[in-house]
Amino acid sequence: MAPLAPARAGHGRDRGRARGQRNVWNGRSDLSRVGVDGALAWSLLVLVLLFVRFARSSPARRRARGPLVAAGGLYLALVAVDLMHSAQRGYLSNDSVDQQLWTGQAIALVVLAGGVAVAWWRARRRRFRVARLVVELGATPPPNGLRDALAALLDDPTIELAHTPWRTDA
Known about the structure:
Blueprint: H1 5-10, H2 30-56, H3 59-89, H4 96-137, H5 145-154
């Protein structure tokens, strides 16, 4: 009977704690719940700020950044849904719903990376087109010709140039 006494006294889960004291490191602790709730709040806050900033941007910027904001917003929304699902339990897990949400998050991140690559390619192409336009208009541009050409090239009719035009009557 003596060799079994230590095993009975410890009982595995409660060893090292006073009677009635909870283990804060198990998956269902208040600390885990606070972490899940905090992450959910941050993801929703960032999602709202992303779309508020997008809505306040110029039409040209919205056209250029729209696909990136959509992919990033989709990723953040899927993260928030996953955290809402985890908040019901109070801890993160890996059930079938979580795994499907992770797949959606991975796809959204791949789309976001593709959008960044396309944005880099478009910026490079736009720089080339602007350089070609400068060479074409370098001789003698018509009045407001540079502004109109840049507005058409950049697809932004609200563009304004910050320079003083040449005066030929002075």
